[in-house]
Prior knowledge:
Strand content: 15-25%
Largest sheet: 3 strands, antiparallel
Radius of gyration: 13 Å
Number of helices: 1
Distance between the termini: 31 Å
Low-confidence stretches: none
Shape: elongated
Oligomer: single chain
Order of helices and strands: EEEH
Strand order of the largest sheet: 1-2-3
Amino acid sequence: MGTDEQIQKFAGGEVYLWLEQESSIQLKAVSGSDPIELTANEARKIAAALIETADRLDVIDLPKH
């Protein structure tokens, strides 16, 4: 998993989110063969983390002058 950034964990460790090599957002959901069940609060936390990470990626991708 990501070496550059800290891995964020959600849903009791079944969902992972990280910024990979300052070039992409990685999202991994693992729960065997069953779907992962999220509460509304867990879904909001993941959504907020995705937005925050996307904003950080936007800053990284800005052209350097």
